[in-house]
Amino acid sequence: MTISKHIYFAGPMFAQSDLRYNDHLVKQIRALSTELTVYLPQENEAINDKSAYADSKMVALADTEEVLKSDLMVAVLDGITIDAGVASEIGVAYAKGIPVIALYSDTRQQGADNPQKLEALSTPAENQFHYLNLYTVGLVKLNGQVVATEEALLEAIKQALLERRD
Fold first, then answer.
1. Are strands 36-39 and 72-76 parallel, antiparallel or unpaired?
2. Nearest 5 degrees, angle CA 30-CA 73-CA 147?
3. What is the rounded CA–CA span in Å between residue 99 and residue 22?
4. Domains, the chain, ordered by start
5. Up-side HSE of residue 16: CA atoms within 13 Å toward CB?
6. Which of 96, 39, 47 is nearest to 66 (CA)?
7. Measured distance CA(111)–CA(155) in Å, rounded
8. Which Gene3D superfamilies match (predicted)?
9. I want to staple 10 with a disulfide (CB 3.0 to 4.6 A). Which of 16, 55, 86, 132 is the partner?
């Protein structure tokens, strides 16, 4: 018996680099299993063809419907801040008990045990690390996990889908 799994992919999608990275990650996720369907919002031209028109309600309804159909959400947290749409989608997933696996690959995480970097925290404007909104991160961790590499992301997805199969 084949068990279909639906994954919602939440990521920033307004720069070409975002679109390409999302596409890159989704190709890897889709390659994990033929049982997977992955909703990548940028592929939904009805609401995300930026030369056309979709109002806020159309976008909210289309993406929320897909979140609610999902067995799992994959969310990219990278960027200057967590993308506002991604944060909203994480909130919907949390409220509905949909597990979230988030990728946070910011290189400023490295060196967390470096004494100079830690000492710099006490000097104004010398934070060597990146800050993420703790509320949004907390929602992820309450019903999922944050990983730091693409490899860890793919492994976590495989594990989550195995657990959901039981």
1. unpaired
2. 90
3. 19
4. 5-165 (3.40.50.450)
5. 0
6. 39
7. 24
8. 3.40.50.450
9. 86
DSSP-derived pairing of the beta strands 144-147 and 36-39? unpaired
3-state secondary structure the chain: CCCCEEEEEECCCCCHHHHHHHHHHHHHHHCCCCCEEEECHHHCHHHHCCCCCCCHHHHHHHHHHHHHHCCEEEEECCCCCCCHHHHHHHHHHHHCCCCEEEECCCHHHCCCCCHHHHHHCCCCCCCCCCCCCHHHHHHHHHCEEEECCHHHHHHHHHHHHHHHHC
**The residue to which tokens 């109002």 are assigned:** 55
pLDDT at 54: 87
pLDDT digits (tens, 9 = 90+) for 23-56: 999 999 999 999 899 999 999 988 877 788 889 9
pTM of the predicted model as reported, rounded to 2 decimal places:
0.91
